[in-house]
Specification:
The chain has 23 helices and ten strands. By secondary structure, the chain is an alpha/beta fold. It is elongated and about 125 Å long. It is found in: Cell membrane.
Amino acid sequence: MDTIMAESAAELKARKGLASTFENAALEQETSPFQFLLSLYKGNFGNLLISFVFLLVKSAPIYVLPIVTANIINIATNPSAHSMRDMWINFIVVVIVILQNIPTHAAYISFLSRAVRHVEAGLRSAMVRKLQQLSINSHRELPAGKLQSKVLRDVEAVEAMSKQFMIALAPAVVNIVVSFVITLQSSWVVSLFFVLTIPMSITIVTAFRRKIRRSNSEFRKEIEQMSSRVSEMVEMIPVTRAHGLEKVEIARIDSTLRNIQGKGYRLDLVEAYFGASNWVTFQIFQVLCLMFTAYLAYTGDIRVGDVVMYQGFFSMILASVTGLINIYPQIAKGLESIRSIKEILVSTDIENNRGKMKMMDVRGEFTFENVELSYPGSEHHVLEDVTLEVKAGECIAFVGASGAGKSTVLNLVIGFLQATGGKVRVDGIDMNDIDLRSYRKHLAVVPQTNILFSGTIRDNITYGLKEINEADIDRVVEMANLSEFIQKLPNGLDTMVGEHGGKLSGGQRQRIAIARALIRDPKVIVLDEATSALDNESEFHVQKAMQELIKDRTTFIVAHRLSTIRDADRIVVMKDGRVAEIGTFDELMSGKGEFYNLRQLSL
């Protein structure tokens, strides 16, 4: 077991290092997609080199067969100068060369796959790590479906392009070089004819390159758009079904699919003209080669068998050149996917914790000094001149109309947002100087929208924690008013909750989220409408649990229910991003100000 753990740790460290390498390579803004692809294979060039050696050996039959064919024809057409022994020797040689292809081809693919799969896993790991570093604002702006398309489809396209380079492009180049060298040794006149294929292939690629690249870019963006809309559609199915809007949603997705159909059709048409132009051109060249070598045999400059050999090598060259041109669309698709992947890897909108102070302990004192916050590209201030002192262990409730800035303040406390003006301090330390990962280990959050993953109830409660005492789990289950509900389940705590907790009611999901916060025994608690989904009886039990939870812990609450905020040490009334009033419940009610008006409206 220890050995397995050690190997896993070593593998994890290696993958982390590889992901870091990929990210650094992507950050080179001037790096072309092809240079970036080469950088991905650093450390794997040894496997690629060995794979290339096996490629040369396994490809021997296609080089030897035209020569043997020519020899046998020449022997058969001139029996007086040869014996059957010469024919048998040629036969045995070609059979041996063909048979060796089985082990050498397996070895070629083995070493190639090691390199390609290593890069594939490393690239996905780099993207996953980068997604975890991106700021919350970035995730709000980037649709989940679009990100999934980049991690799955684009990485798959890069992998396919890598395989095309080694499985199609490298053999094609080798075939061209070997065929040309053998032909040159036999007849320099015929080899010059072969050279004419090079400018013709360059001309064809140049003519279609821009159209193929533009078509691939448009198609890739439409696929990302579709992925995003399908993801939204799945999330919206309960709302769609409840309002009888199935046809509206189908029409919306159909519109996207029609766009994809059009872009895909244009891409297919460009590739069709590209492939047909390539095939026709080189078939004409092959017929010309046959006529040229037949003429040389007719005049006695070469033997009849040599016509077959040259035709075989020229066919090999044309097939290789055709193959190179035909894989260009796949390469163009892969290069476009690299550009797509780099959009994520080069993003600088990240939560940067490097070199910042790690907080080993948190007392829970918070200071807001003339805090302002506005989003990029907007002159409107979400928060303006917010000043507040919070003592360790104090419970602060925020109230106000929708859009007043309550949840924004909580996001500042969590570190999801950074103030664009003023200072937010924790225990006297500017939050901009804190390693937020270390700070959040002392923090528990119960959001307004509860988030569960498709595991068991136990997994969701103990998420991210190791070696949890069973007694602690039972305690928080009791405190969150989950005991009676869990006892009725056939598998108890080990019951699967379904994706996003789909098998549970809203109140049950919220109580599991509360239990997840309770088991962390945090120093700072953030509750954003944490009891909004509970019925009155469940809320009563959870409120009792909360009273125990918030003792000697700094607590920030956003709530509208009177029962949730009445016992807070202080209530902060927010209006238009500013602090309108601060005081206890009784003080604010007696003052008959903003809070009093809000309470009157809710009665």
